[in-house]
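PROTEIN DESIGN WORKSHEET
SECTION A - STRUCTURE
LENGTH: 310
TOKENS:
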């Protein structure tokens, strides 16, 4: 009993303080968002999701147009992600072949917050937590606690001077970690040597914007809007797929629409580590699959709000 009491006491001591004022919360979020894009840095970080761990290197440098960043997987399959203000691609090695896939968003650790994070204050409370030490640098935990059940919580440890997130953790409603990324080593300030990007093979056919919508999305979760709607080819899928993306600026949920050649059975699914949720159902003449690193209420709300366009 005494041990349980001590654990509860420690948990209470570790809780963050009262919510910050709107101005202070905005300042913290903006500082972290700006540092991740406009600060020169390079380092190695470890990402853990469930039982899966991966080590990646990251380099970032500001440019006249904005910024350039490069992520490279240091274990597992050969893969890198190249981002800039104009777009992002994933480059994968498959034996002697190089495959290139365009990305619909630029988000990666430590570039997690949107360039303008202020609207997030409508959906998250921001609190300051404990100080910590990551990769030899001091940082302060900034906790983003959702105001509803449609988004996960986040804990970002901002480097004390620059505000660069040195560690990021996604947590569920019980404060259990779902995904963590943290620098093992990082160098701030000096311009990283990204070098000239090697020549890429011919890009796949560019995604086309959806011009005629045959499905409508009603009753989206608060704060979510559709930020993309394209027709594209996806790996391991035949033919073209209509791909929509919904976001509140921090959480992203995808909708994939394909012709339903036979009646579609409604399917609900959750990944083994509990972060990815999925719902598949028939909407008019289409099979609609809603998938995202998001709580079940958000995925379900989007999936059930889909209707054939009249």
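SECTION B - SEQUENCE
RESIDUE ASSIGNMENT:
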């Amino acid at each position: 009993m005494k041990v349980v009491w001590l654990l509860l006491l420690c948990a209470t001591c570790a809780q963050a303080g009262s919510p910050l004022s709107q101005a202070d919360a905005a300042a913290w979020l903006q500082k972290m968002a700006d540092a991740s894009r406009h600060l020169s840095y390079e380092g190695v970080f470890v990402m853990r999701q469930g039982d899966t761990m991966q080590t990646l290197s990251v380099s970032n440098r500001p440019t006249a147009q904005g910024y350039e960043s490069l992520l490279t997987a240091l274990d597992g399959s050969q893969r890198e992600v190249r981002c800039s203000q104009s777009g992002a691609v994933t480059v994968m090695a498959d034996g002697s072949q190089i495959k290139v896939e365009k990305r619909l968003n630029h988000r990666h650790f430590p570039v997690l917050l949107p360039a303008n994070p202020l609207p997030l204050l409508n959906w998250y409370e921001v609190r300051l937590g404990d100080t910590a030490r990551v990769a030899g640098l001091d940082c302060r935990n900034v906790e983003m606690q959702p105001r509803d059940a449609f988004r996960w919580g986040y804990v970002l440890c901002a480097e004390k001077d620059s505000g660069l997130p040195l560690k990021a953790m996604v947590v569920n409603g019980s404060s259990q970690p779902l995904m963590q990324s943290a620098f093992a080593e990082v160098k701030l300030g000096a311009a990283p040597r990204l070098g000239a990007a090697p020549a890429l093979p011919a890009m796949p056919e560019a995604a086309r914007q959806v011009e005629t919508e045959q499905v409508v999305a009603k009753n989206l979760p608060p704060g979510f809007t559709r930020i993309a709607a394209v027709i594209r080819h996806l790996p391991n899928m035949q033919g073209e797929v209509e791909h929509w993306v919904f976001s509140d600026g921090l959480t992203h949920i995808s909708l994939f629409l394909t012709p339903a050649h036979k009646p579609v059975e409604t399917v609900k699914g959750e990944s083994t580590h509990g972060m990815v949720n999925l719902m598949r159902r028939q909407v008019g003449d289409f099979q609609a699959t809603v998938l995202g690193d998001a709580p079940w209420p958000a995925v379900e709300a989007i999936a059930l709000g889909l209707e054939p366009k009249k």
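SECTION C - NOTES
The chain has a mean pLDDT of 87.
The first helix runs from residue 2 to 14.
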